[in-house]
Specification:
two-stranded antiparallel ribbon, alpha+beta, 7 helices, globular, about 15% strand
């Protein structure tokens, strides 16, 4: 379930919930291609990267075949592997695809529940809780957030982030994916 909230007369925030579990499944796209060079300060990328950072730092490990596709195709898709959190990966991928135009729209700030970059940029409950996000466009928060997920991608000198949850859980109990799926059928 997603929510679209008006923040000013011409801007909105799309609260994407679980529509996407990693923002790298939403970006880059044809609408918002990965730039040829990236200002690491503007986008909050790792300090040890060169500035400006060539996009090849990130595209050389992209699963797409061509250089154009590496700059315009999201890094990930919803998994159809057994034990995946996605019961219906094709529907999940379609949902993610449907968010791409919202994400590209300069008047819409897309916020996904599992995007840790939000905690780095937006005021949250534990810090800055008196500040509203209504002026996100004037503050440049959308641009600041756009490529931060690149920090979480694996590189030769850095593994990807560790999983937040190990195994497959239902009702607070660790179980095999097959058992959980069988239980869901009952």
């Amino acid at each position: 379930m997603c929510g679209l909230a008006r923040t000013t007369s011409d801007t909105f925030v799309l609260l994407g919930g679980d529509a996407c579990h990693f923002i790298g499944a939403l970006r880059p796209t044809d609408y918002t291609p990965l730039p040829l060079t990236i200002d690491i300060t503007k986008y909050g990328l790792d300090y040890f990267l060169p500035n400006p950072c060539p996009c090849t730092t990130f595209t050389s490990y992209h699963p797409a075949a061509t250089d154009h596709d590496k700059r315009t195709t999201p890094y990930y898709k919803a998994s159809s592997a057994p034990g995946s959190v996605y019961s219906f990966p094709d529907i999940a991928n379609q949902s993610i695809h449907n968010l791409k135009q919202f994400d590209a729209n300069e008047h819409v700030l897309v916020c996904m529940a599992h995007d840790p970059s939000l905690l780095e940029v937006l005021p949250v409950l534990n810090s800055g809780n008196k500040e509203m996000i209504n002026n996100w466009k004037l503050k440049g928060w959308k641009e600041s957030l756009r490529w931060r997920f690149l920090n979480d991608l694996p590189r030769p000198d850095k593994s990807g982030d560790d999983p937040e949850v190990y195994g497959f859980w239902r009702d607070g109990k660790l179980m095999s994916a097959e058992d959980a799926l069988e239980r869901d059928k009952q």
